[in-house]
Amino acid sequence: MKKKFFMVPLLVAAALVLASVACNFQLPGPEESFDLPADVPEDIPAATEEEPLPSEGEMPETEPEPEVAPPASAWLPPGTIALVRSGTWASASLKAAAADATITDLGVTLYGASSVSLSGRWVASADSPAPAANIQIINLESSITYSIPITPGYTIYGTAFDQDEQRLAFMELGASGGTYLWGIVVVNLADGSTTRFDTSFAIGSHPAFLPGRPVGWNAAGDLLILDTFMPDTEGNWAGVWGVAVPPGAASADLDTLAAVSLVPMGGYLTEPVLSRDGTHLLYLNRDYGYTPAGYVVMAYDLVVNELWDLNLTTNTATPYIDASDGSALMRGAGWSMDGSQILYGQGSFSGGADFTAMGLKTYTGGVSTAVGPAAIPAGGAMQQLAWCRPGTGLATARQSGGDSELQVIDMLSGGSVVIADVQQAVDILGCVP
Question: Distance between CA 304 and CA 357 in Å, rounded?
C-alpha cells in the first residue's frame, strides 16, 4: 500500500509535465511555395539550330517542371492567362483568354491604344473614338474609375502602368502654329491626381529627345522608358530613352528631367518589350549588310535578324540571336512570366516579304530550343508572341483578308489552337498571373 500511495504523486507530476509540453508545442507554419519556370523539352527537332552566343549577360538555365496553375484572380474568369483587345482600332472589347482556348468578354469597351497592369486589375484606354476627351482608367476588381482629361486638340500616344500598379503614364501630343507641344502625364492610381511634364519644339527641327510612347518603368520605379518617334512622319524607332520620373515627382518642365539614351535610333526596328520585373528590355534589329534568302522588299524593308537584350540595371546590351544562315526573325518576341526565358520566331522566305515557314523557339541561358512550327495563316503573317504560362503561349496572326486571329500555343507539343470569337484586329495586352 505504501508503494501505491507513493506512485500517485509521481503520476500526477508526470501528467503535469506532459500537459505543459503539450501547451507549449506549436505546429510548424505552412511553407511558402512558388512556381519554378519550366523550360521546353529539347527532343523536338529544330527548324534551324542557333550557335550558343557568348556567356556575358546570359540568363540562367532552368529545368523543366510540371506546370501548376496559379490561383485565379477574383476579378477575372477562372483559367484566364491573358487580357486581349478584340475589335477594330477605333473600338474594341476587352476579353479574357484562357489556356483551353476559351475567351470571355469582360464588358469593357476600349478605344485606341490600350494597356493593362501586370495583375490585370487595371485597364486604361481613351473613353471614346478619336478625338477623345478623356483617358479612362478602370479597376476591374473594385470598379473604381478615373476619367483623366486629355488636353483639347491633343492625341494620345501610348499608356503604361508601373510594376507596383501605383501609377499610369500616358503621352499626349498636339501642335500650335509652327510648334509641336507634347507631354507626359502621370496618374496616381490611389486618388486619380495627376502630374505633368511638358515641353515643345519647332516643327521641322530634330531635337535629340523626341516625343515618346511610354513602355513602362524600370524595377526601381524611378525611370520611365519611352519609345520615341518623329511626329507626322514615318520616323518610328527614333530611340529608346529613360526619363527620371520617380514616385511623388512634382510637375515640371520635361526638359529639366534627367534623361538617358538606352537604345539609339538605328539600333532597333520593333517596339521594345519590357520584362515584367522591369529589369530587362527586349528588342529586335536588322544588320543591313545581311539579306535573308528569298526575301523581296515589297514596300518597306523592315525584316529583322537580331534579337537583343538591354540590362536596365547596368545599361548593357547583349545580342542573343543573330540569324545569318539565310533565315530571319519574326518582328515580335515575348518574355516568360519570370523573365528567365524568351519566346521568338525564326523563319524563311520564298520570293516575297512574308514568311512562308517559321519555327517557334525558346532562348534560355545561351541555348535556343525548338518548340514547333508557327501556324502561319495562308497568305497571312505572324504578329505577336506572349509566354503566359510555362506550358502555354499566345500568338496573334494576320489572315489573308486582313483580319487577325488569336492562337494558343502548347509549349510542350508545339501545337496551336485558334481561339474563336476574335474578329478584325486583336492585340495581346498582357499576360496575367
Answer: 15
Q: Which three three-digit cell numbers place residue 40?
A: 521546353
Torsion angle of C-alpha atoms 223, 227, 232, 235, degrees rounded to 10: 140
User: pLDDT of 408-424, one tens digit each?
Assistant: 999 999 999 998 755 67
Cα distance between residue 261 and residue 333, in whole Å: 22
CA angle 272, 274, 275 (to 5 degrees): 145
Give the residue among 224, 208, 86 at the shortest CA–CA distance from 158.
224
Cell numbers 537583343 correspond to 308
Residues 338-360 have pLDDT tens digits of: 999 999 999 999 999 999 999 99
DSSP state letter for 31: P
Q: Which three cell numbers stand for residue 147?
A: 476619367
Give the closest residue to 41 by CA, choosing from 334, 361, 346, 339.
Answer: 361
Q: What are phi and psi of 252, to 5 degrees?
A: -160, 165
Report how far residue 291's alpha carbon sits from residue 325's, in angstroms, rounded to the nearest whole number. Answer: 10
Q: Map out the domains of the chain with their CATH numbers.
A: 36-74+276-433 (no CATH), 119-265 (2.130.10.10)
Beta partners for residue 124, in sequence order: 115, 137
